[in-house]
């Protein structure tokens, strides 16, 4: 990990209500960042009233010790100095090329790339359902 700060999207963590099946290894990256003493931030599209219970379930009362910045109600379509990643980078005091966004959200990925932040994550893939046994039986 060469980033000097990590910005996590709440949806990147397994077990979160808004979690995607993107396969992002947020748990491992967060552990590594904490071990190395790197500043971490958390962003969520959810309003505070919905994000807060999920934060408590996932991190207990330690979220404020882990994350230097927590931004809820993020609108990833916002551009300029009010864009979520711009706000967080400003609060962390870190330039975009020294940060890494960890997300599985398509909107967050696009926003991070617009902000010129490296991205660890991928958009969920759509899996094709296997043919049902009825459909197979009907063909025979």
Notes on the structure:
This protein has 140 residues and is an alpha/beta fold. It has 6 helices and 5 strands. It has helices at 26-36, 48-59, 63-66, 84-92, 106-114, 133-139, and strands at residues 5-9, 40-43, 69-71, 99-102, 118-120. Strands 3-2-1-4-5 form a 5-stranded parallel beta sheet, sandwiched between helices. The relative contact order is 0.21. The model is unreliable at 17-23 and 122-140 (pLDDT under 50).
In short:
The chain is an alpha/beta fold and 140 residues long.
Mean pLDDT comes to 82
Strand content: 5-15%
Instruction: Please mark out the parts with pLDDT under 50 across 5 or more consecutive residues, or reply none.
Output: 17-23, 122-140
Note the main sheet: 5 strands, parallel
C-alpha Rg, in Å?
17 Å
Strand segment count: 5
Strand order of the largest sheet: 3-2-1-4-5
The total count of helices amounts to 6
Secondary-structure-derived class: alpha/beta
Helix proportion of residues, in percent? Answer: 25-40%
- What is the N-to-C order of secondary-structure elements (H for helix, E for strand)? EHEHHEHEHEH
Tell me the overall shape. globular
Cα(first) to Cα(last) distance is 54 Å
């Amino acid at each position: 990990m060469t980033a000097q700060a990590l910005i996590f999207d709440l949806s990147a963590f397994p077990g979160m209500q808004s979690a995607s099946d993107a396969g992002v290894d947020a748990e491992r990256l967060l552990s590594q960042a904490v071990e190395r003493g790197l500043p971490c931030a958390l962003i969520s599209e959810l309003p505070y009233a919905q994000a807060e219970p999920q934060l408590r379930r996932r991190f207990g009362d330690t979220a404020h010790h882990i994350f230097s910045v927590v931004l809820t109600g993020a609108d990833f379509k916002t551009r300029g100095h009010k864009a979520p990643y711009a706000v967080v980078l400003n609060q962390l005091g870190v330039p975009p090329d020294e940060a890494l966004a960890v997300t599985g959200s398509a909107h967050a990925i696009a926003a991070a790339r617009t902000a010129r932040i490296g991205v660890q994550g991928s958009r969920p893939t759509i899996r094709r359902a296997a043919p049902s046994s009825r459909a197979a039986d009907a063909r025979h």
